[in-house]
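Box S1 | Example of a co-folding query
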Amino acid sequence: MGRRARLAVLPGDGIGPEVTAAAMTVLKAVAARFSHDFIVSEWPIGAIAMRTKGVPLPEETLAACRDADAVLLGAVGDPAYDLAPRDKRPEAGLLELRKALGLYANIRPARVYRGLEGAGPLKPEIARGVDLVVVRELTGGLYFGTPRALDLAEGTAVNTLPYTRPEVERIAEVAFRLAVGRRKKVTSVDKSNVLETSQLWRAVTTDVGARHPDVVLEHQLVDSCAMNLVLYPSAFDVVVTENLFGDILSDEVGALVGSLGLLPSASLGDGPGLFEPVHGSAPALAGRDVANPIGAIATAAMLLEDGLGLTEEAAAVHRAIEAVLEKGARTADLAPRGTRALGTREMARAVADAIPAHVAV
Ligand code: IPM
Ligand code: MN
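Box S1 (continued) | Returned holo structure for manganese (II) ion
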């Protein structure tokens, strides 16, 4: 019997509408193939919401998200708001949404697809083994800490990096539970040689690690981790870290796998999950049908699995992505010079058409 699910879709800004449309093409194919009924509604967030509603996260958008079984987001951000005050920026809408839905765990898996070993800056033999997950704390740290202030006239500004034991404990638990189903290794990333917050982070992750004796826990300082990710990327399994470090390291991981446009993410908490590709709004690419939709399509697979519990359907989407890439389909970010690149829509169609009817998981 099929599943009825309500999906709130927030296309947002820049390439957001194009990549969410691509993800929806694939979700529609999944619904048809597996006889599910996805009830889809679209809501504004970010700059488009600023323009039409005057705020980056309109009340009706938040209400629709609370009411949905899962939320799919494209991207937020628009250079037109570069000088706007923080709460009038498109990004504020996404941060408010994460906070309001209590989405403290941002799961960002990354692996090198077969055929893409040479797509990034790494030597193919180093890229080949990359298969890791960044578990980023998403509702704490510098992003939300107070006091915070900017006085441009005075030339002063302040941000605060707070964490509490329960906040670190719950994100560490997510990381350890994930590691159990993988290669059983957690790398906790901090800056404990300088920051008190990081000393707490290290103490708490060590305590949580003691509850998971079957998982190996190592600690790395964030600067050294940034280097190790390039030197020995396949040594990483699950990386757990605070909000800002996770933001920075996950873009680096995008380069490791060949393109930031490939990376999906799931933001999970106690309510409905928010599923968002790792890449941003990429204004320079917007409206040209050139963006890589695979990050958004893999995000749709995470929505199926972590949002709706549809494991077989999620596996079908992953297989379809792999099949299409193995046949040589490449968007502009990945196509070698002089070869034909597929457009965003063409790539989405190819993946949708490659959805197998049944998958053994
Ligand atoms: C991300 C993005 C966001 C973040 C921005 C758009 C607020 O860079 O999801 O990684 O910093 O979290
Ligand atoms: Mn980011």
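Residues 226 and 249 are 7 Å apart (CA to CA). The domain at 117-257 is CATH 3.40.718.10 (Isopropylmalate Dehydrogenase).
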